[in-house]
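The records we work with from here on pair a chain with its fold. Here is one such record, which you should read through line by line:
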Amino acid sequence: MTDASNSAYATPVTISSTMTNGLVTGTKVRVLGTDQWLSTTSYYDSKGRPVQAISDNLQGGLVVTSSLYDFAGKVFSSFTHLTNPRSGIAPDEQVLTILTYDDHNHVTKVTKQVNDTTPVIVSQNTYDELGRLKKKVLGNNLEVVNNEYTIKGWLSSINKDYITGTNTEANHFGKKLGYDAGFTIPQYNGNIAGVTWKGFNAPIARDYGCGFRAILSN
């Protein structure tokens, strides 16, 4: 058992504990064709939540990942420290990840910081009234993903305006799913009747219709 921190090493344990009964505290994996073994040691807090994992990597270094939790038990941040003695460019890398939540415990923002660089927002999420992911913005508007759903909650489209060429945001892909309309054989049980999609810089959109065999019964 240990507390999370940014240290590359776990807090020394001076007494044994039975609170980890049933929890994986260590694994060993052998590299095929060699006698090299990669070990992973896992540490938990007093609530049984994983707070730190120390793993050997193939390059002879370590990967140490530590996690912090908020009062409600959600991961607030994680810190990964990676060492690679074989690298002459980046032998020591540190990545801090911070998660931001809304009042309904949905992740609204993911921020990352590499070493001592300026923190960067890598994604921002917006949700609808039912808690479904409505919009995701990646990086500094590198890609915007807009989701729409049917009245039954099924995903109906991703960036549908990109398919018709009416998009006003940064999109690289668009897709529409048809269930009970838009294709030759409509489906009313949740099966997808067909899909329309358009890739990045594609001149036209493409369609693919689906057909299903009847279920035979004795």
